[in-house]
Amino acid sequence: MPPPLTVAEVTGAERELGICFPAEYRAYLLEVSAGGAVSRLARTERG
User: Fold this and answer.
1) Are 29 and 10 in contact (CB under 8 A)?
2) Which residues contact 2 (CB under 8 A, 6 or more apart)?
3) Contact 39, 2 (CB under 8 A)
4) Residue 9 or 3, more confident
5) Torsion from C-alpha of 36, 9, 43, 19, nearest 10 degrees
6) pLDDT at residue 47 in the model
7) What is the pTM of this model?
């Protein structure tokens, strides 16, 4: 499992996407892991 993200990485993703992650998800990213195969979130033409 990949290591947790840093605060800078989470904040950067929120800024780039123009959203704020829910507190529970933000805590998961910072304390547990960034997940598996998905390593980067990005907007698509569908949103």
Assistant:
1) yes
2) 33, 34, 35, 36, 39
3) yes
4) 9
5) 120
6) 67
7) 0.67
Enumerate the H helices of 1-47 as residue ranges: 7-17, 23-31
* Residue 35 to residues 12, 16, 28, Cα–Cα distance (Å): 17, 19, 10
pLDDT one-digit tens code per residue, 22-42? 999 999 999 887 665 455 667
Contact 15, 40 (CB under 8 A): no
The two three-digit tokens of residue 10, written as one number: 């989470």
Is the pLDDT score of 20 beyond 90? yes
Q: Are the C-beta atoms of residues 18 and 42 closer than 8 Å to each other? A: no
